[in-house]
Structures
1.
Amino acid sequence: MMTAILAGGHILLDDIPGVGKTTMALAFSKARKLKQNRIQFTLDVLLVDITGFSMYQKETGNLCKRSDCFAL
């Protein structure tokens, strides 16, 4: 976790319920005075729902980035 924090990256914690993932993330963020967000995944959520995707626009010949989650 510390390597990702120092590199300015993101972290995905995946494990069984009740092992303290949220508590650990909150502790790291409070200790380093960082912003912390939590996303609750369900079986029908895909990574592209969170990160968005690139779409080719034939008319302009460009790629556009689309992300509904972070547009809010």
Note: The radius of gyration is 16 Å.
2.
Amino acid sequence: MKVKVNPDVCIGCGACQAIAPDVFEINDDGIAQEISEEVKEEFVEDATDAKEGCPVNAIYDPEDVVEEQAA
């Protein structure tokens, strides 16, 4: 699984970091960012929970975007 945070959408609420601190961090601008685009297997469930729990849907899987564009 891969994850990205859209910085133009993120409001910096910190929910993702609270749910998946090994996947997300808050940067110096107060916006969430992924620690690594590729999520380690042991953190996939937390990353998924964070993605689903993002109040503004700023977290996405870049592979899903490629698939949608190809369809």
Note: Residues 59 and 71 are 21 Å apart (CA to CA).
